[in-house]
Amino acid sequence: MSTIKAQGRLLKANAADRVLEYLLLPYGEEGRTSAGRVTASAGTLDVPDEIVANMEHDGTRPVAKSAYLREEDDGLRAGFHVAETTAGNDLLVEAAEGLRTGISVEIDNPVIRAGRLLSGALTGAGFVTTPAFPSALLVASDAGEIEDETEDQHDTEGTEPEANNTEEEADVPTETENTTATVPAGSLAARRNENTGPKTPNDLFRLMANAHKTGGTKGLTAALSDIVPGDILGQEQPQYVGELWDGKAYERKIVPLFNHANLTSYNVQGWRWVTRPAVAAYAGNKTAVPSNAVETEQVSISAERIAGAHDIDRKFRDFNDAEFFAAYFAAMTESYARVSDTSVAADILAVATDVTADAVPTDVPTGLSYIVDGALAVLAATDTMPTFALVPLNLWKGMLLTPRDKTLEYLNSALGFEEGSTGGFRIQPSTVVTDAVLVGTKSAATVHELSGSPIRVEAVDVANGGIDAGLFGYYATNIHDAEGLALVTPDEG
Protein backbone atom coordinates (compact mmCIF):
# COMPACT_ATOMS: atom_id res chain seq x y z
CA MET A 1 0.00 0.00 0.00
CA SER A 2 1.35 3.44 -0.97
CA THR A 3 0.43 6.68 0.69
CA ILE A 4 0.62 10.28 -0.41
CA LYS A 5 0.47 13.38 1.72
CA ALA A 6 -0.85 16.76 0.67
CA GLN A 7 -1.13 20.09 2.44
CA GLY A 8 -4.30 21.89 3.44
CA ARG A 9 -4.84 25.21 5.16
CA LEU A 10 -6.48 26.51 8.30
CA LEU A 11 -9.75 28.37 7.80
CA LYS A 12 -10.93 29.02 11.34
CA ALA A 13 -9.74 28.44 14.88
CA ASN A 14 -12.29 28.47 17.73
CA ALA A 15 -10.47 28.01 21.02
CA ALA A 16 -13.66 28.27 23.08
CA ASP A 17 -15.33 25.33 21.31
CA ARG A 18 -11.95 23.61 20.79
CA VAL A 19 -12.67 23.30 17.05
CA LEU A 20 -10.25 23.88 14.16
CA GLU A 21 -11.68 24.08 10.64
CA TYR A 22 -9.57 23.32 7.56
CA LEU A 23 -9.74 23.12 3.82
CA LEU A 24 -8.12 19.71 3.77
CA LEU A 25 -7.78 19.22 0.02
CA PRO A 26 -8.47 22.01 -2.52
CA TYR A 27 -10.17 20.89 -5.76
CA GLY A 28 -8.97 21.99 -9.18
CA GLU A 29 -5.70 23.39 -7.90
CA GLU A 30 -2.35 21.78 -8.54
CA GLY A 31 -0.49 20.97 -5.37
CA ARG A 32 2.87 19.45 -4.60
CA THR A 33 2.56 16.20 -2.68
CA SER A 34 4.88 13.40 -1.72
CA ALA A 35 3.95 11.76 -5.05
CA GLY A 36 4.69 14.85 -7.12
CA ARG A 37 2.34 17.41 -8.68
CA VAL A 38 -1.28 16.31 -8.24
CA THR A 39 -4.65 17.94 -8.89
CA ALA A 40 -7.64 16.61 -6.94
CA SER A 41 -11.28 16.83 -7.87
CA ALA A 42 -14.64 16.12 -6.24
CA GLY A 43 -15.81 12.55 -5.83
CA THR A 44 -12.42 10.91 -6.20
CA LEU A 45 -11.78 10.02 -2.55
CA ASP A 46 -13.34 7.50 -0.22
CA VAL A 47 -14.10 9.66 2.82
CA PRO A 48 -14.76 7.82 6.11
CA ASP A 49 -17.15 9.03 8.77
CA GLU A 50 -14.32 9.96 11.10
CA ILE A 51 -10.53 10.31 11.06
CA VAL A 52 -7.96 10.97 13.76
CA ALA A 53 -5.45 13.79 13.48
CA ASN A 54 -2.12 13.76 15.28
CA MET A 55 0.94 15.93 15.72
CA GLU A 56 3.39 15.86 12.82
CA HIS A 57 2.00 12.51 11.58
CA ASP A 58 3.23 10.78 14.73
CA GLY A 59 0.71 8.02 15.37
CA THR A 60 1.64 7.96 19.05
CA ARG A 61 0.53 11.58 19.53
CA PRO A 62 -3.19 11.83 18.59
CA VAL A 63 -4.75 15.16 19.56
CA ALA A 64 -8.06 15.49 17.68
CA LYS A 65 -10.95 13.70 15.97
CA SER A 66 -12.92 14.98 13.01
CA ALA A 67 -16.25 16.58 13.93
CA TYR A 68 -17.31 16.61 10.27
CA LEU A 69 -15.90 15.75 6.85
CA ARG A 70 -17.73 17.11 3.81
CA GLU A 71 -17.06 17.87 0.20
CA GLU A 72 -17.85 21.35 -1.07
CA ASP A 73 -17.25 23.11 -4.35
CA ASP A 74 -13.79 24.35 -3.43
CA GLY A 75 -12.58 21.13 -1.83
CA LEU A 76 -12.78 18.71 1.05
CA ARG A 77 -13.44 20.53 4.32
CA ALA A 78 -13.12 19.25 7.87
CA GLY A 79 -13.63 20.39 11.41
CA PHE A 80 -11.54 18.82 14.18
CA HIS A 81 -12.48 18.71 17.85
CA VAL A 82 -9.25 19.02 19.84
CA ALA A 83 -8.77 16.82 22.91
CA GLU A 84 -8.52 18.44 26.33
CA THR A 85 -4.91 17.46 26.89
CA THR A 86 -1.72 19.43 27.29
CA ALA A 87 -0.82 18.80 23.67
CA GLY A 88 -4.34 19.75 22.60
CA ASN A 89 -4.22 22.99 24.58
CA ASP A 90 -0.87 23.84 23.02
CA LEU A 91 -2.25 23.15 19.54
CA LEU A 92 -5.18 25.55 20.05
CA VAL A 93 -2.87 28.32 21.22
CA GLU A 94 -0.41 27.75 18.36
CA ALA A 95 -3.21 27.75 15.77
CA ALA A 96 -4.81 30.90 17.18
CA GLU A 97 -1.45 32.69 17.20
CA GLY A 98 -0.66 31.60 13.66
CA LEU A 99 2.25 29.43 14.74
CA ARG A 100 0.81 26.08 13.61
CA THR A 101 -1.71 26.60 10.83
CA GLY A 102 -0.85 23.67 8.63
CA ILE A 103 -2.51 20.32 8.17
CA SER A 104 -1.35 17.44 6.03
CA VAL A 105 -3.79 14.74 4.87
CA GLU A 106 -2.98 11.10 4.29
CA ILE A 107 -4.38 9.36 1.21
CA ASP A 108 -3.86 5.62 0.91
CA ASN A 109 -3.88 3.60 -2.34
CA PRO A 110 -3.84 6.67 -4.61
CA VAL A 111 -4.29 6.27 -8.35
CA ILE A 112 -2.67 9.16 -10.23
CA ARG A 113 -2.67 9.57 -13.97
CA ALA A 114 -1.49 12.58 -15.93
CA GLY A 115 -1.08 14.46 -12.66
CA ARG A 116 -4.70 13.93 -11.62
CA LEU A 117 -5.88 12.05 -8.55
CA LEU A 118 -8.39 9.49 -9.80
CA SER A 119 -9.05 7.58 -6.58
CA GLY A 120 -7.81 6.99 -3.05
CA ALA A 121 -8.87 6.63 0.56
CA LEU A 122 -8.63 9.39 3.17
CA THR A 123 -7.11 7.79 6.28
CA GLY A 124 -5.84 10.55 8.54
CA ALA A 125 -4.21 13.93 9.00
CA GLY A 126 -1.40 15.58 10.88
CA PHE A 127 -1.07 19.09 12.28
CA VAL A 128 2.20 20.56 11.00
CA THR A 129 4.14 23.81 11.13
CA THR A 130 6.51 23.85 8.19
CA PRO A 131 5.37 22.77 4.72
CA ALA A 132 7.83 20.81 2.68
CA PHE A 133 6.95 22.74 -0.45
CA PRO A 134 6.68 26.53 -0.97
CA SER A 135 3.35 26.03 -2.76
CA ALA A 136 1.86 24.65 0.43
CA LEU A 137 2.64 27.70 2.56
CA LEU A 138 -0.22 27.78 5.03
CA VAL A 139 -2.10 31.03 5.51
CA ALA A 140 -5.67 31.96 6.36
CA SER A 141 -6.38 32.59 2.67
CA ASP A 142 -5.56 30.73 -0.53
CA ALA A 143 -1.85 30.72 -1.34
CA GLY A 144 -2.64 30.96 -5.06
CA GLU A 145 -0.88 29.37 -7.98
CA ILE A 146 2.76 28.40 -7.70
CA GLU A 147 5.13 29.00 -10.59
CA ASP A 148 6.78 25.92 -11.98
CA GLU A 149 10.35 26.76 -10.92
CA THR A 150 11.63 23.37 -11.98
CA GLU A 151 10.39 23.71 -15.55
CA ASP A 152 11.76 27.25 -15.79
CA GLN A 153 15.14 26.04 -14.66
CA HIS A 154 15.21 23.26 -17.25
CA ASP A 155 14.26 25.73 -19.99
CA THR A 156 17.05 28.12 -18.95
CA GLU A 157 19.64 25.39 -19.05
CA GLY A 158 18.57 24.41 -22.52
CA THR A 159 17.40 20.90 -21.80
CA GLU A 160 15.00 19.18 -24.13
CA PRO A 161 11.30 19.86 -23.54
CA GLU A 162 9.32 17.00 -22.12
CA ALA A 163 7.28 14.90 -24.50
CA ASN A 164 3.60 15.58 -25.03
CA ASN A 165 1.68 14.73 -21.90
CA THR A 166 -0.32 11.83 -23.31
CA GLU A 167 -2.10 9.27 -21.20
CA GLU A 168 0.27 6.47 -22.18
CA GLU A 169 3.43 8.46 -21.49
CA ALA A 170 2.41 10.35 -18.34
CA ASP A 171 0.61 7.65 -16.39
CA VAL A 172 2.42 6.98 -13.12
CA PRO A 173 0.61 4.08 -11.44
CA THR A 174 0.97 4.06 -7.67
CA GLU A 175 -1.47 1.27 -6.85
CA THR A 176 -0.37 -1.34 -4.35
CA GLU A 177 0.03 -4.08 -6.96
CA ASN A 178 3.51 -4.59 -8.37
CA THR A 179 3.75 -3.25 -11.94
CA THR A 180 6.51 -2.77 -14.46
CA ALA A 181 6.58 0.76 -15.84
CA THR A 182 7.60 1.25 -19.47
CA VAL A 183 8.75 4.68 -20.52
CA PRO A 184 9.57 6.05 -23.97
CA ALA A 185 13.22 6.00 -24.96
CA GLY A 186 14.90 9.36 -24.61
CA SER A 187 12.32 10.67 -22.17
CA LEU A 188 13.29 12.24 -18.85
CA ALA A 189 12.22 9.11 -16.98
CA ALA A 190 14.29 6.92 -19.30
CA ARG A 191 17.36 9.07 -18.81
CA ARG A 192 16.90 8.79 -15.05
CA ASN A 193 16.71 5.01 -15.32
CA GLU A 194 19.99 5.01 -17.24
CA ASN A 195 21.66 6.98 -14.47
CA THR A 196 23.54 4.80 -12.01
CA GLY A 197 23.50 7.57 -9.42
CA PRO A 198 20.81 8.39 -6.83
CA LYS A 199 17.22 7.14 -7.16
CA THR A 200 14.40 9.38 -8.35
CA PRO A 201 12.26 11.19 -5.76
CA ASN A 202 9.39 8.79 -6.44
CA ASP A 203 11.71 5.85 -5.74
CA LEU A 204 12.68 7.49 -2.48
CA PHE A 205 9.06 8.09 -1.53
CA ARG A 206 8.14 4.47 -2.28
CA LEU A 207 11.12 3.24 -0.27
CA MET A 208 10.15 5.38 2.69
CA ALA A 209 6.53 4.26 2.43
CA ASN A 210 7.58 0.61 2.48
CA ALA A 211 9.74 1.29 5.52
CA HIS A 212 6.77 2.95 7.18
CA LYS A 213 4.58 -0.10 6.59
CA THR A 214 7.17 -2.34 8.25
CA GLY A 215 7.56 0.00 11.21
CA GLY A 216 11.07 1.09 10.24
CA THR A 217 10.45 4.84 10.11
CA LYS A 218 7.90 7.45 11.04
CA GLY A 219 4.96 8.11 8.71
CA LEU A 220 5.67 9.95 5.51
CA THR A 221 4.56 13.58 5.72
CA ALA A 222 4.41 16.57 3.45
CA ALA A 223 5.96 18.67 6.20
CA LEU A 224 9.61 18.42 7.16
CA SER A 225 10.25 15.94 9.98
CA ASP A 226 13.23 15.46 12.22
CA ILE A 227 15.40 12.40 11.83
CA VAL A 228 16.81 11.46 15.23
CA PRO A 229 19.00 8.50 16.27
CA GLY A 230 16.02 6.71 17.79
CA ASP A 231 14.29 6.66 14.38
CA ILE A 232 17.03 4.97 12.35
CA LEU A 233 17.19 1.68 14.22
CA GLY A 234 20.60 2.36 15.75
CA GLN A 235 22.46 1.65 12.52
CA GLU A 236 25.35 3.92 13.38
CA GLN A 237 28.29 1.91 14.70
CA PRO A 238 30.06 3.24 17.83
CA GLN A 239 33.82 3.59 17.87
CA TYR A 240 35.27 1.58 20.74
CA VAL A 241 38.28 3.21 22.37
CA GLY A 242 38.59 1.14 25.54
CA GLU A 243 39.27 2.72 28.91
CA LEU A 244 39.19 6.51 28.79
CA TRP A 245 42.22 8.44 30.04
CA ASP A 246 41.43 10.26 33.28
CA GLY A 247 44.82 11.69 34.14
CA LYS A 248 48.35 10.45 34.72
CA ALA A 249 48.62 7.37 36.94
CA TYR A 250 49.59 8.29 40.49
CA GLU A 251 53.23 7.81 41.41
CA ARG A 252 54.25 7.60 45.05
CA LYS A 253 56.05 10.69 46.27
CA ILE A 254 56.48 10.08 50.02
CA VAL A 255 57.55 6.42 50.29
CA PRO A 256 60.62 6.85 48.00
CA LEU A 257 61.97 9.57 50.32
CA PHE A 258 62.85 6.96 52.97
CA ASN A 259 64.69 3.66 53.25
CA HIS A 260 62.78 0.64 52.02
CA ALA A 261 62.82 -2.94 53.32
CA ASN A 262 60.83 -6.11 52.73
CA LEU A 263 58.14 -7.01 55.24
CA THR A 264 58.53 -10.70 56.15
CA SER A 265 56.12 -10.89 59.07
CA TYR A 266 52.99 -9.18 60.23
CA ASN A 267 54.95 -7.95 63.27
CA VAL A 268 58.19 -6.03 62.93
CA GLN A 269 60.35 -6.28 66.02
CA GLY A 270 63.67 -4.66 66.81
CA TRP A 271 65.35 -2.29 69.18
CA ARG A 272 66.89 1.16 69.19
CA TRP A 273 69.26 3.18 71.34
CA VAL A 274 67.91 5.35 74.08
CA THR A 275 71.42 6.32 75.20
CA ARG A 276 74.19 5.49 72.78
CA PRO A 277 77.58 4.18 73.91
CA ALA A 278 80.30 6.81 73.64
CA VAL A 279 84.04 7.15 73.91
CA ALA A 280 86.11 9.84 75.62
CA ALA A 281 89.71 10.88 75.98
CA TYR A 282 91.83 8.24 77.72
CA ALA A 283 94.91 9.01 79.85
CA GLY A 284 96.36 5.52 79.67
CA ASN A 285 98.85 4.18 82.18
CA LYS A 286 96.43 1.47 83.22
CA THR A 287 93.83 3.96 84.38
CA ALA A 288 90.13 3.22 84.07
CA VAL A 289 88.84 3.32 80.53
CA PRO A 290 86.02 5.86 80.00
CA SER A 291 82.55 4.40 79.96
CA ASN A 292 78.96 5.60 80.01
CA ALA A 293 75.55 4.21 80.85
CA VAL A 294 73.90 2.67 77.80
CA GLU A 295 70.18 2.13 77.36
CA THR A 296 68.12 0.48 74.64
CA GLU A 297 64.44 -0.12 74.10
CA GLN A 298 62.48 -2.76 72.25
CA VAL A 299 60.51 -1.72 69.19
CA SER A 300 57.48 -3.65 67.95
CA ILE A 301 55.46 -2.49 64.98
CA SER A 302 52.36 -4.13 63.60
CA ALA A 303 51.93 -4.02 59.87
CA GLU A 304 49.06 -2.01 58.46
CA ARG A 305 46.71 -3.48 55.89
CA ILE A 306 45.39 -1.98 52.66
CA ALA A 307 42.83 -3.89 50.61
CA GLY A 308 39.94 -3.61 48.18
CA ALA A 309 37.77 -6.15 46.39
CA HIS A 310 34.77 -6.37 44.08
CA ASP A 311 32.33 -9.05 42.96
CA ILE A 312 32.55 -8.96 39.15
CA ASP A 313 30.14 -10.62 36.74
CA ARG A 314 31.87 -13.73 35.45
CA LYS A 315 30.90 -12.87 31.85
CA PHE A 316 34.05 -10.75 31.65
CA ARG A 317 36.12 -13.86 32.30
CA ASP A 318 33.97 -16.23 30.25
CA PHE A 319 34.33 -14.00 27.20
CA ASN A 320 38.03 -13.49 27.91
CA ASP A 321 37.74 -9.73 28.33
CA ALA A 322 41.40 -9.33 29.24
CA GLU A 323 41.29 -5.57 28.71
CA PHE A 324 38.69 -5.10 31.43
CA PHE A 325 40.64 -7.05 34.04
CA ALA A 326 43.89 -5.34 33.07
CA ALA A 327 42.23 -1.95 33.50
CA TYR A 328 40.58 -3.04 36.76
CA PHE A 329 43.81 -4.17 38.41
CA ALA A 330 45.70 -1.16 37.05
CA ALA A 331 43.16 1.13 38.71
CA MET A 332 43.32 -0.84 41.96
CA THR A 333 47.13 -0.75 41.92
CA GLU A 334 47.08 3.00 41.42
CA SER A 335 44.68 3.33 44.33
CA TYR A 336 47.04 1.25 46.48
CA ALA A 337 49.93 3.53 45.57
CA ARG A 338 47.94 6.61 46.55
CA VAL A 339 46.59 5.19 49.83
CA SER A 340 49.94 3.74 50.95
CA ASP A 341 51.72 7.01 50.16
CA THR A 342 49.18 9.03 52.13
CA SER A 343 49.32 6.58 55.05
CA VAL A 344 53.12 6.73 55.33
CA ALA A 345 52.94 10.54 55.18
CA ALA A 346 50.49 10.52 58.10
CA ASP A 347 52.85 8.29 60.13
CA ILE A 348 55.77 10.63 59.44
CA LEU A 349 53.89 13.82 60.29
CA ALA A 350 52.64 12.27 63.54
CA VAL A 351 56.19 11.97 64.94
CA ALA A 352 57.97 14.87 63.23
CA THR A 353 59.67 17.39 65.50
CA ASP A 354 57.94 20.77 65.59
CA VAL A 355 60.16 23.70 64.64
CA THR A 356 59.02 27.33 64.78
CA ALA A 357 60.15 29.33 61.77
CA ASP A 358 62.38 32.35 62.15
CA ALA A 359 61.48 35.69 60.62
CA VAL A 360 61.55 35.51 56.84
CA PRO A 361 64.26 37.75 55.33
CA THR A 362 63.28 40.40 52.81
CA ASP A 363 63.13 39.25 49.18
CA VAL A 364 63.38 35.59 50.22
CA PRO A 365 60.44 33.28 49.48
CA THR A 366 58.79 31.98 52.64
CA GLY A 367 59.18 28.39 51.45
CA LEU A 368 62.94 28.73 51.06
CA SER A 369 63.27 30.32 54.48
CA TYR A 370 61.31 27.46 56.07
CA ILE A 371 63.50 24.90 54.30
CA VAL A 372 66.62 26.45 55.78
CA ASP A 373 65.08 26.51 59.27
CA GLY A 374 64.16 22.83 59.00
CA ALA A 375 67.50 21.79 57.54
CA LEU A 376 69.40 23.51 60.33
CA ALA A 377 67.18 21.84 62.95
CA VAL A 378 67.83 18.36 61.48
CA LEU A 379 71.54 19.07 61.16
CA ALA A 380 71.80 20.28 64.75
CA ALA A 381 69.87 17.31 66.19
CA THR A 382 71.36 14.48 64.12
CA ASP A 383 74.57 15.91 62.71
CA THR A 384 73.23 14.77 59.35
CA MET A 385 72.37 16.81 56.31
CA PRO A 386 68.71 16.50 55.29
CA THR A 387 67.82 14.87 51.98
CA PHE A 388 64.36 16.24 51.21
CA ALA A 389 61.82 18.97 51.85
CA LEU A 390 58.06 18.85 51.26
CA VAL A 391 56.60 22.27 50.48
CA PRO A 392 52.86 23.10 50.46
CA LEU A 393 51.43 24.41 47.21
CA ASN A 394 50.80 27.92 48.51
CA LEU A 395 54.51 28.33 49.39
CA TRP A 396 55.71 26.44 46.34
CA LYS A 397 54.29 29.13 44.06
CA GLY A 398 56.56 31.78 45.53
CA MET A 399 59.56 29.53 45.01
CA LEU A 400 58.65 28.91 41.38
CA LEU A 401 58.57 32.63 40.74
CA THR A 402 62.11 32.96 42.06
CA PRO A 403 64.90 32.64 39.47
CA ARG A 404 66.73 29.33 39.80
CA ASP A 405 70.13 30.94 40.27
CA LYS A 406 68.76 32.99 43.15
CA THR A 407 67.34 29.85 44.79
CA LEU A 408 70.65 28.00 44.52
CA GLU A 409 72.57 31.02 45.72
CA TYR A 410 70.45 31.22 48.86
CA LEU A 411 70.64 27.49 49.60
CA ASN A 412 74.37 27.41 48.90
CA SER A 413 75.04 30.20 51.35
CA ALA A 414 72.69 28.79 53.98
CA LEU A 415 73.39 25.06 53.75
CA GLY A 416 76.76 24.86 52.04
CA PHE A 417 75.62 23.05 48.89
CA GLU A 418 78.02 22.92 46.01
CA GLU A 419 77.60 25.71 43.51
CA GLY A 420 75.07 24.92 40.78
CA SER A 421 73.37 22.00 42.55
CA THR A 422 71.57 21.07 45.73
CA GLY A 423 73.76 18.07 46.48
CA GLY A 424 70.99 15.47 46.06
CA PHE A 425 68.62 17.46 48.25
CA ARG A 426 65.10 17.00 46.87
CA ILE A 427 62.54 19.80 47.09
CA GLN A 428 59.06 18.88 45.94
CA PRO A 429 55.53 20.27 46.26
CA SER A 430 53.08 18.24 48.31
CA THR A 431 49.49 18.29 49.47
CA VAL A 432 50.24 16.38 52.69
CA VAL A 433 51.43 19.58 54.37
CA THR A 434 49.60 22.90 54.72
CA ASP A 435 51.26 26.20 55.65
CA ALA A 436 54.23 24.18 56.91
CA VAL A 437 57.37 22.62 55.45
CA LEU A 438 58.59 19.13 56.31
CA VAL A 439 62.35 18.71 56.13
CA GLY A 440 63.87 15.30 56.75
CA THR A 441 66.61 12.82 56.12
CA LYS A 442 66.23 9.50 54.35
CA SER A 443 67.64 7.52 57.27
CA ALA A 444 65.03 8.86 59.70
CA ALA A 445 62.60 6.05 58.80
CA THR A 446 62.27 2.77 56.94
CA VAL A 447 59.13 1.71 55.12
CA HIS A 448 58.65 -2.06 55.32
CA GLU A 449 56.41 -3.49 52.60
CA LEU A 450 55.41 -7.05 51.81
CA SER A 451 57.38 -8.20 48.80
CA GLY A 452 55.23 -8.12 45.69
CA SER A 453 52.64 -5.82 47.20
CA PRO A 454 49.99 -5.26 46.22
CA ILE A 455 48.94 -8.89 45.92
CA ARG A 456 46.34 -9.69 43.28
CA VAL A 457 43.69 -12.21 44.35
CA GLU A 458 40.84 -13.84 42.43
CA ALA A 459 38.23 -16.38 43.51
CA VAL A 460 35.23 -17.90 41.75
CA ASP A 461 31.81 -17.15 43.25
CA VAL A 462 29.92 -20.03 41.66
CA ALA A 463 26.68 -19.51 43.59
CA ASN A 464 26.30 -15.94 42.34
CA GLY A 465 27.97 -16.28 38.94
CA GLY A 466 30.77 -13.90 39.77
CA ILE A 467 34.51 -13.45 40.03
CA ASP A 468 35.69 -12.04 43.36
CA ALA A 469 38.72 -9.91 42.51
CA GLY A 470 40.75 -7.85 44.91
CA LEU A 471 44.07 -6.38 45.95
CA PHE A 472 45.86 -6.75 49.29
CA GLY A 473 48.92 -4.99 50.62
CA TYR A 474 50.84 -4.66 53.88
CA TYR A 475 53.22 -1.99 55.09
CA ALA A 476 54.85 -0.77 58.30
CA THR A 477 56.50 2.59 58.96
CA ASN A 478 59.53 2.17 61.21
CA ILE A 479 60.62 5.53 62.67
CA HIS A 480 64.31 5.46 63.59
CA ASP A 481 64.84 9.04 64.66
CA ALA A 482 62.06 11.60 64.99
CA GLU A 483 64.67 14.36 65.26
CA GLY A 484 65.59 13.64 61.66
CA LEU A 485 62.16 14.97 60.71
CA ALA A 486 61.46 18.68 61.19
CA LEU A 487 58.02 20.21 60.64
CA VAL A 488 58.53 23.95 60.26
CA THR A 489 55.48 26.07 61.06
CA PRO A 490 55.03 29.86 61.15
CA ASP A 491 55.48 31.76 64.39
CA GLU A 492 51.93 32.41 65.61
CA GLY A 493 53.15 35.04 68.03
What does this structure look like?
- With 493 residues, this protein is an alpha+beta fold.
- The protein has two domains: 1-144 and 171-235, no CATH class; 303-493, phage-related protein like domain (phage-related protein like fold).
- Helices cover 23% and strands 32% of the residues.
- It contains ten helices and 22 strands.
- The protein has helices at 86-96, 149-157, 167-170, 188-194, 201-213, 315-318, 322-351, 366-382, 393-400, 404-415; strands at residues 3-14, 19-26, 30-33, 36-39, 45-46, 52-55, 62-72, 75-82, 102-113, 116-128, 259-263, 267-275, 295-302, 304-313, 353-356, 388-392, 426-430, 437-440, 445-450, 455-461, 466-479, 485-489.
- The chain has a seven-stranded mixed beta barrel with strand order 1-2-8-7-6-10-9.
- A hairpin with a 6-residue loop joins strand 6 (52-55) and strand 7 (62-72).
- The protein is elongated.
- The termini are far apart.
- Mean pLDDT is 78; it is low at 131-198 and 213-225.
